[in-house]
Amino acid sequence: MLRISARFYCKIATQSSFKAAEYKNKIKKDKKLNFTQLLHPTKVPQTPVPAAFSDPSENVVEIDTKTIQLLERLSLVDLDSDQALATLKSSIQFADKIAHIDTQNVRPLYTVLEKQQLQLRNDQVTAGDSRAELLRCAKVTDEDYYVSPPGNIPLEQ
Amino acid sequence: MGSYIVVRRLATQPKLAHAPKRKWKSVVGLEVHAQITSASKLFSGSGTAFGAPLNTSVTYFDASIPGTLPVLNRKCVESGIKTALALGCRVNEVSMFDRKHYFYADLPNGYQITQQRAALANDGLMTFPVITPGKKVYYKSVNLLQLQLEQDSGKSLHDEQLKRSLVDLNRAGVPLMELVFAPDLETGEEAASLVKELVLILRRLQTCSCKMEEGALRVDANISIHEEGAPLGVRTEVKNIGSVRSISQAISYEINRQLELVAEGGVVTNETRSWDAEHRRTVAMRDKEVLQDYRFMPEPNLPPLHVNLKPGSVSTQELISVAALSKEIPELPEHTRQRLVEHYKLNAETAIILVNEPVLLEHFLSITESLADVPTKVVTNFLINDLLTYCNKLNLDIEDYTTSDNALKDVLKALHAEQINLQAARQLIQLLHTNPTSSVSELIGQHNLQQISELSTIEAYCQQAIANQSKAVQQYQKGKSKALFAIAGEVAKLSAQKANMKIVVECLERLLKK
User: Subunit structure, per the record (chain A)?
Assistant: First the structure.
């Protein structure tokens, strides 16, 4: 059934005794990503989890021209060259693994973090006024407003 | 064009007259969005103050900058649970967040984080008095299907001339609770009464300011009509209802619009309409003409929200205890009404009016506490028939009638001591409103409002009145006792409404018997 072990999750960020300075030194030594930038504890695993799947590599993927045309239309990616086609085939083959996992009697998950409790934040204003910075990202602004094409308005106006 | 309409009306009317009389029923369901009172937003640390300068309460997360993540505000969960408990809901041990996608300029993410599959709470029930002018008050119960937490969107201003929208993201991410009620209502008055009661409850809980003018409480109504016994009709949704009064008007308008449409052989289409308060009508809106696919999906950035349902549990940093929150729920309006009926022996309707106007209730409780010898009936009559009526006449919100409890107490004290009469008390309500700094005794002196109770003065007025109203005197002496009112009225007029009417009536009876 559901097998989630505590070690899958980032222990450092969820621990209350976490000391930033200590951790920084550790990162320098281990040359790992700097997680101290997270403002709040996370429930997301911070290290990849190795998993063993059966490799269906012998199932060679064949795609007919009609499907390729459809995929090109949908993705706007040109699949004309042999290399592009090979990449597509290997991608499908890679994803195909998932279809061979036995999921009998396993309740579907909405999220892999389902057994985790959501972290809560105290009701405090900690940020907000970055207007100049954020408005700079917009193409059209007017007097501190973002400007967009007209939205839904009553028909008779 | 005009003549065409006339012809068509004439052509359809006879048909209607011959058609068997069919009974139509209207069905109304409400969705209420209530802004949860909080310092910061639902998932970010920016402020929620109303009227903050444009785009200044916006974090990177609210502006949907890549790499930002939501962190849930604890207070919003607590407020949601409290509200759910007050409305008799089942709070769910595990609830989840979902993304609801739609494309709109004031929604920078392209989706709203809401709760669809597993909401915070379900299956509540609200029972409330329905007040229809000129009809008897009755109680109505409506099922509350779901209470969910969700983000608000930004605010768009539509610039008609330049054909563009101006977007302010201050409201984007502000915490809301959406309350979805079952379509158990029938009329606009019932809907308005439900919202009125909800406002009272949320204000007591302090989970929502309910300031509709600030958009802190928004009501959408789903309205359909169907023949008795037939399945429900196609519904329309009316949005943009900005006040409690508009709720009843908008829904009544929409029901009548649908009835007229069907009577003329038309068909109601599923559409979103907007309430035009100025012209008092609903107007079709351009968007959402086709059923939208919101492409709901689980919010991958938020694990499920757990709460502790164990009785007697306490809240911890990680886990909120529902049992602990249930202890924080104050007395609810319906309980107050019952207490008023039991403790002060008020009738049910008086209790409803007092509770529905929190200011009146405060005045009542404070006045009865310090003026124990004034009968409660005198106090409630004064507050409801005189003070509230005065405010309604001026179209003034009772909350804006600023006067101290003490001033009202002084008026009632003078009234009870027969120092002034009811006419003078009414005049004082107006005088206190226009001269808020003057004391009641000053005003009585300045405006010469003392009641005349001296027997000799009253007898003089009575003699005069008897002389003036000889016809009424004759009628009275022939046995028409009601004619006495005409003579008493004359005394009131002669004394500039200042005579003590109790003594006047006694005096007149005595004089006329002779």
Answer: Subunit of the heterotrimeric GatCAB amidotransferase (AdT) complex, composed of A, B and C subunits.
Candidates A125, A139, A147: best to mutate against B (most CBs of B within 10 A) is A125
Domain span(s) for CATH 1.10.10.410 in chain B: 455-513
Contact at CB, B298 and A110, closer than 8 angstroms: yes
Flag whether the ipTM exceeds 0.85.
no
Report the C-alpha gap between B171 and B58 in whole angstroms.
8
Residues of A with CB under 8 A from a CB of B: 39-40, 43, 110-111, 113-114, 116-131, 134-135, 137, 142-157
Cβ(B100)–Cβ(B116) below 8 Å: yes
Q: Check: CATH 3.30.565.10 for B455-513?
A: no
B12 pLDDT above the threshold of 80: no
User: Cβ contacts of residue A75 below 8 Å, gap of 6+?
Assistant: none
Residue of A113, A123, A126, A140 to mutate, testing the B interface (most B Cβ within 10 Å of its Cβ) = A123
The single residue listed with the structure tokens 């993201």 is B169
CB B144 within 8 A of CB B181: yes
CB-CB contact of B87 with B116 (8 Å): no
Tens-place pLDDT, residues B430-487: 888 887 777 887 788 787 777 777 777 888 888 888 888 878 888 888 877 787 788 8
Q: Which tokens go with B332? A: 């609810």
Looking at residues A129-134, what average pLDDT do you find?
87
The terminus-to-terminus CA distance of chain B in angstroms comes to 77
For residue B150 the two structure tokens come to: 């969700």
